[in-house]
Amino acid sequence: MTADAAVWLVVGLGNPGPTYAGHRHNIGYLVTDELARRMGSGFRAHKSGRADVVEGRLGAPGGAAPRVVLARARCYMNESGGPVKALATFYKVPPERVVAIHDELDIPFDTMRVKLGGGDNGHNGLKSMRSSLGTGDFHRVRVGIGRPPGRQEVADFVLSNFSTTERKALPFVVDSAADAVESLIVEGLERTQQRFNS
Q1: Count of structural domains, the chain
Q2: Model pLDDT, residue 198
Q3: What is the DSSP letter of 23?
Q4: C-alpha dihedral (177, 124, 93, 192), degrees to nearest 10
Q5: Can you give the residue range of the structural domain that contains 188?
Q6: Is 91 annotated as a binding residue?
């Protein structure tokens, strides 16, 4: 992939390895899996050694489809900024063409919000990205997981598997979030917000 074409960097936030695979905190990984499937390719190691990537095009078939790098850091969520910064530098992607897909406690399960910029709201992956990129002005696809029930600690909640009921709806949630990423890249923020900010 040449550096001169406008490239989008789409980052799925999560924790690596089978232990974390089904956790609420790993929704970003699940969405990038779906996007990789749509691009017809599997993740492979990037030469930086710090992330796995898929390079290709997303959106409309043919030459008009934007060039996209899907990425997943190979480190824990709270250290993901370094690999993201390395990839952004390598592919010459400015922050406004970076998209972070992440779990969001303040949005009910089965809903999402797409936005540009903002704080990290206590999310360690976003905090790490803000710190490494030197700005919070990147796009976010915030996939709702809701608040923990009762007195369950937030950390325990995000690092636990989706409930049986949620798992039934999860494929639709993932599909919808992948649609939102495609829409953001192809149609822009405003139209995407109108469609997906339920």
Answers
A1: 1
A2: 65
A3: B
A4: 30
A5: 7-196
A6: no
In a domain, 1, yes or no: no
Q: Please indicate, yes or no, if residue 2 is contained in any of the structural domains.
A: no
25 catalytic, yes or no? yes
Best CA proximity match to 144, nearest among 180, 197, 103, 192: 103
Cα separation, 148 vs 23, in Å, equals: 13
| Tens digit of each residue's pLDDT (9 = 90 or more) over 106-162 | 999 999 999 999 999 889 999 999 999 999 999 999 999 999 988 999 999 999 999
20 annotated to a ligand binding site: yes
Does the structure show a pLDDT above 70 at 60? no
Residue with tokens 């996209």: 68
**pLDDT for position 4:** 44
| Closest by Cα among 124, 107, 111, 118 to 15 | 124
Condensed to tens digits (0 to 9), the pLDDT of residues 3-26 reads 446 899 999 999 999 999 999 999
9 has which bridge partners?
Answer: 69, 98
26 domain residue, yes or no: yes
78 is in an annotated binding site: yes
15 carries a ligand binding annotation: no
- Residue 82 belongs to a domain with what CATH number? 3.40.50.1470
Residue 190 within any structural domain of the chain:
yes
Catalytic residue (one of 23, 25, 46, 139): 25
Query: Cα separation of 142 and 139, whole Å?
Result: 9
